[in-house]
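Pasting as-is:
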Amino acid sequence: MVTYDEGGERVVRAAGCLLWRRSPSGNGIELALVYRPKWADWSHPKGKLERGEDACEGALREVLEETGMTCELGTELPTIRYRVDGRPKEVRYWAAESTGGVFVPNREVSRLAWLSPTTARDKLTQERDKELLDALLETLHAAGEAL
């Protein structure tokens, strides 16, 4: 599905997840952040949708491609809209609990870090990603998850 913004520009559609797991120490949760050398940033796993792919499928695929992790999608989080190289981009996100996997560095992502929410907030490059982290924490808190 092709979408256009109010000005008639074609929107780049993408999807991703705020991937989390219960901390191995038993205290709270950890979030997965990826380092993308092309952009020199720390972010949540995400990427462009393929032709005919729905956003849920794309989010799961991107998490697997970028982190090596499988996950279970949870609550949909806020959709983020911004411009990249002058084009409008829309990224739909979900909370997603990791169900396993192994990270292997690849051409898009050179590092994966599992971090506490506080440390993740400090490491995230973009302010919009920090706002998503807040939304995730609110969602997990409402679900009774021990943070």
